[in-house]
Structures are given as C-alpha cells and as structure tokens.
Amino acid sequence: MAQVFFTQHLRRLVPYEPVEVSGDTIASVLDGIFDEIPALKSYVVDDQGALRKHVCIFVDEERIDFTGSLTHPVGAESEVYIMQALSGGMRCRTGFL
User: Fold this and answer.
1) pLDDT (tens digit, 9 = 90+) per residue, 1-52?
2) What strands, in cross-sheet order, belong to the sheet with 62-64?
3) Kind of pairing, strands 79-84 and 55-59?
C-alpha cells in the first residue's frame, strides 16, 4: 500500500500518519483517504472533484502538476506527499515582509 503524508496544516485533520492506502492512481488513493477521513476532502479537491490549485502532490519525490495529477500512477510501495500552500506574509514590527 502507498504511504501518504501531509503538511502540518492538513495533518490536524489526520488522526495518524502515514495513512496507508491502496490505489493505482492519485485519484484512487485520494478516494481511499476520503473514505477514511471525509473532512480532508474539501481541503484537497474542489466541488467538481478536481485538485485545488493551491495543493501540491509529490509521488516518490516527483512533483505532480495539478492539471494531470489525478491520473498519475501510484505504485504499491509509493510515498505520496500532499501539501497545501498557505499564502500571506511574515509579520514583523514594521509590517508585512
């Protein structure tokens, strides 16, 4: 089974890590995760089921472009990293950097 890891922001929704899920594509791996952790779905995919633009996925150290990532193959021993980008600046005494 593929092992799936999350960034800190998403990890607050995941009761354990890594999540082990079987699937041969990103879509099937995500479906398996959403079956186990439904609250995670709206953070990763939009209401049409497409990967959100601010979500980045790596499979075995290869960054997957969000436009085709749901069909990208995943092996039984793959490591999948799901990252949600956060925007904003760094606050300092004089304002945002």
Assistant:
1) 999 999 988 999 998 889 999 999 999 999 999 999 999 999 999 998 888 8
2) 19-21, 2-6, 79-84, 55-59, 62-64
3) antiparallel
95: buried, middle or exposed (CB in 10 Å: 19+, 13-18, 0-12)?
A: exposed
Cα dihedral 59, 63, 68, 70 sign: positive
Q: For the chain, give percent helix, strand, coil, nearest 5.
A: 25, 30, 45
Q: Which amino acid is at 11?
A: R
Domains plus CATH for the chain?
Answer: 2-96 (3.10.20.30)
pLDDT confidence band for 97 (50 / 70 / 90): very low
pTM of the shown model: 0.81
The Cα–Cα gap between 78 and 5 comes to 11
